Fold these 3 entries.
Entry 1:
Amino acid sequence: MGITNKEYFLLFVIAYLLVGALTPLMRRIAIATDVIDRPNSSHKSHKQPVPYLGGVAIIIGVIAISYSTSLVSNFTTKTFWLATSVLGPALLLGLIGLWDDLRNLQPLPRFIAQSIAGIFTAGILVATDNVGNPTGSAVFDSIITVIWVVGICNSINFFDNLDGGAAGTVAISSIALAFLALNGDQYLIAALSTVTAGATLGFLVWNKSPAKIYMGDAGALFLGVLLATLTIRLHPNSDTQIGSYLTPVFLVAIPILDTTVAVLSRLRRHLSPFQGGQDHLSHRLVRAGFSRKQAAASLWGLSGLYGVVAIFISRPKASTESYLAGIAGLLWVVLFILFFRTRDA
């Protein structure tokens, strides 16, 4: 059930325009209903109050365009349920995130909801044989899927700590994922990734520094589950097993790096990993002398680099693939050491 390159481009443009138009509307609603992120705690890095609900615009845009496309393009019951298996858990977490934006939930209810989404996703993928890198064991595949969904969901949520940082990074990862999926004739993943890229870039128009609106937990959790589900469904066209396993990791390498640095630095200081703080990559870059715009651009650049690596290791010979994967893995370790050794706050 392939679609043409022109149709992919239209999906991207429509998602960009729709979310770009919905975001200022949600901003006005957030201001009218006082859904505002105020800099009233030590881990907040912004200086002025900023409205939430940008994530609602992203959710509406992605859901509406994805289902509308399935209705007008070779619609079948199978296509509908395939799309729902990806969008359903993301929507659930998006609604939990919205509740958190409105009521400020404790970490435990969010973790339980993330785990439920991970278990549901694992059950669907294993039962339908849609795990991109199966291990040969249904138990291992299920465990890995749950850990991946919960982990990436939290990584994107943690990474949303800088104007435009998360939105731009998710857009870059989605573009690379769409390219990989399209080359592998995995049309559902390619279409949903294209829509996600357009939606996040449409939101980025309003979220880049200085941000006029934030996506909030609603957007971060929705995008986290969506990206996690799409990457674990991807079947990389790699010559080596290690390249195949590392492809989805490289697609989200920088959010994973951010979470690893922040969590380990908090554990080192005997703090809860779920406690907010100014110990993320963006905060460390700003303390090193970067402006907020430069910090966001640097994180986008690193994400783009790993997106390119993910694309390239699916194309060359096995020897070159292993070489590229090794260099990229070593660079990740070097970046971790450099960031982890900088001042925590």
Note: The chain has a mean pLDDT of 89.
Entry 2:
Amino acid sequence: MNAVLLASLGTGFTFFMTALGAATVFLFGKKALSDRLFRCSLGFAAGVMIAASVWSLLIPAIDKAEELGKIGWIPASGGFALGVFFLMALDKLLPAFHPGEDRPEGVKKSLGHSTMLVFAITLHNIPEGMAQGLAFALAAQDNSKVLLAAAIALAIGMGIQNFPEGAAISLPLIQSGMSKKRAFLYGALSGILEPIFGIITVFIAGATMELLPWLLSFAAGAMLYVVVEELIPEAKLSGSHIGTFGTMAGFLIMMILDVALG
């Protein structure tokens, strides 16, 4: 199996889904995405990422470590903690914008409202790209159809969650006065880091298989940090159960995809 080609196809699909979500500006125009749909979408993304972190990253990290003769929980927990601290550091160093707020969280930067929105969501695509690159690298390294099916399930799940993310960027931008074409471009490009980091991670993982369990759990920690810090609080902001419903649905669908295909 060619890991780079597989990762390129997988992350290319998720990037396409982001662009497809951003293209909703041409359908809805300046109409706002309903609050309930937005909260449900955030919850769905959280559920997908939780399930992917467990089935596609942490469990394979433990299994791979044991295959290499290591104690499984050590790289799994160590890499997980490093992933959490990495995202915490980025949140401290870089501005993070939350929908519905006028000011960014974190270090003050001379960035516009629209730029902060795009930047915040784009930043969180890094662990998603890493996760896909690692999943395909693991499948290629073991030449395993089972692991390949799991990596494909991960890409499908990420693609499903990226559609509302693209819309969540482009629709608010057009409401702020930006042109449809420019809002679409910003929304689509927010997903560009996924294929970039997915392919880079394949090369890193290919250099030494000893690091693969650490890298898998690192991506899991980074993804779960995004879920706990950003997605779930935003999904529950309205006080309704729609965000919870979205999270349960996303987790269930991703679990089914991972187990059925893997």
Note: The chain is about 80% helix and 0% strand.
Entry 3:
Amino acid sequence: MENFCAEFEGAVLRGLRDCGVDLGGSVSLGAAVSGGADSVALLVALSEILKCFPNAALSAVTVDHAIRPREESAGDADFVESLCKDLGVPCVRMNVPEGHIKRLSRECGTGVEEAARAVRYERFESFVREKGVDFLCLAHHADDQCETVLMRFLQGSADLSGIPRARSCFIRPMLGIKRSSVERYLEERKITYRTDSTNRSLSMLRNRIRNCVMPVLDEAVPGWRKSVLSLSVKAGEDSLFIRQAADSAWKSFFKEEASDGGVTFWIEAADFIMLPAALRWRLIMRAADGVHAHEENDRSDGGPRERVPWSFCSSVSEKADVSLSGAGNAGPWSETCGMVCVRFDGKRISVQRKAPVATESGFFVIVERGGVYVAGPWSFSVSDGGTVSGLSFEGGDFAPCAREGDLLTVRFPFVFRSLMPGDRVRDSGGRMRGVSGILDGWKCGDLKFLVPVVQNLSGQEKSIAAVLGAACGFKDWIVRNEDLV
């Protein structure tokens, strides 16, 4: 037993050193502990290692996310506090208000797990600041790395480097250790741990990969894990080179200037077209991130920030290529995604917050009974039973599709209006989707602000019943659930 435990702790010590930790001096380490096997093994190993380094301090942090039943979520935090007391390690418990993460998930249009991760890291950063921690140790291990690389591959990610060993103050000293070694270490140390019931749920992609895909690969392709870990190392080296090249290109070619409502990043089109495609889309994405960071309504609640997709950045790169190659129209053009607009004026390519256009003046009418209604450029009829029909456009040069038949039936009262920030609509699987993102996926451009949205005004959710995109030549998104419409 002693030999294996010493070997395990030696591997964690080497991991610390690989992460840049010098235990010979005065250093403060933190450990993020959930109560699961991985983080408990990390905590125990660190407490044993630091017995030999009197100038190094160790403290722990645990977060109760309050998204599982109380006996599980609070029970995990209670267990961590008790274990830390037994080990003589100071522990900080951070309780997230019940319902906060689910509310954040709805507001941001993301999954609960993504929202929980954002909140968790915000709490970690607060712990690091308040306790003066130099490095916060996270318990990711080699099996987690395999899962991550495989998941990114299946999602079409350009970054197969996986989980970084170190980023800022966050370090992962167990990244080279297998899960089987973690379990054996706890068994031989006679240390218990908690099991998260959600790890068995197949609703999350990572769990499906862990519980369904990886066992099949273990049987069909022996040694695949070693190959994937090797791939992650090589991909990491490639990613580092590309990031450095992108940093250099950003500093050399992109300029920043203040503009109405935010900031504009721009580059001479002649310089942009000379860059490799692998850098172009990354630079567009970086500029878009910069625009979001300068928005007045940029989130400060730990929620994930809106990101423009690779497909949009790649499309902009290809459009610039065509415009400047002489093969296409070199006249001005613009492309929008969410609240970001990329423009080409013949000389420069600029990225900025999308400015309001004429169609964004908005339209809004509350419908409480049957009749004929006008909302901005739209007119429509509503029967006494709440059936919307006869939708037509009354002004401007735009000629959308007239909708003469019945479109949907909605309970009174409801509102017929234009798109608003934060609009979300339920999909067939019961998940909430951002309406702006749906319209971007339909490639509506600025016409998205002409697309009528029908929203219930009764019930607690005041849910969106329909997005009438077909009126502008796109698609309709109509919620069929009788509880919502």
Note: The first strand starts at residue 27 and ends at 32.
